[in-house]
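Hi all, posting the design record for the shared folder.

TITLE: backbone redesign
STEP: 1 of 1
STRUCTURE INPUT:
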């Protein structure tokens, strides 16, 4: 499974690289030491930065969700700009080849960013331990507010680790092609 994961990460290299950049920037903001600065590696941390684990609830939360939030915003912007123009506005290569190629690249970038949305499993498990199992976790109100996003992030990290998100992206694009015809 790791080989399939790395192959997909290299195929979708723009999102992989940008995810590593956002994680690196988040580590610098939180003053977490970064162990390896390479973003594109042939291992299970491809597209992620090896770093020291966060020790406080806020830093663990930001490390687990901050880069994903940035990837989501960029991914949805690119993805729907391309999808709306090609599949719903009906731009074809016969209408304008440069515009069709531009929108196809936007779809590729959007899928690439959306497939690199979730953190490493260690990052979300660190937040999970601090927030929901630790003695010095957040108040009950903050636990209730953060639980849904933490659960989605934990499930997403599992899906990304096991290549499920890549399959969902392929299904998403195929469904758009089928229903647009």
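Okay, here is what came back for every position:
SEQUENCE:
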């Amino acid at each position: 499974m790791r080989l399939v994961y790395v192959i997909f990460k290299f195929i979708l290299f723009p999102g992989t690289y940008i995810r590593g950049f956002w994680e690196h920037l988040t580590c610098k903001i939180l003053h977490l030491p970064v162990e390896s600065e390479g973003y594109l590696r042939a291992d299970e941390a491809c597209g992620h930065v090896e770093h020291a684990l966060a020790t406080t609830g806020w830093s663990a939360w930001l490390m687990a969700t901050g880069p994903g939030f940035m990837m989501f915003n960029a991914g949805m912007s690119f993805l729907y700009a391309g999808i709306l123009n090609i599949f719903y506005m009906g731009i074809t290569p016969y209408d304008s080849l440069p515009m069709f190629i531009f929108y196809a690249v936007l779809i590729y970038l959007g899928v690439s960013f959306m497939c690199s949305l979730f953190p490493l499993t260690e990052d979300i498990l660190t937040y999970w331990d601090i927030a929901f199992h630790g003695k010095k976790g957040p108040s009950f109100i903050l636990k209730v507010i953060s639980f849904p996003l933490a659960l989605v992030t934990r499930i997403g990290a599992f899906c990304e680790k096991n290549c499920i998100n890549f399959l969902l992206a392929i299904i998403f694009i195929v469904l758009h092609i089928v229903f647009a015809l």
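COMMENT: The two ends are 34 Å apart (CA to CA).
Let me know if anyone wants the other runs.
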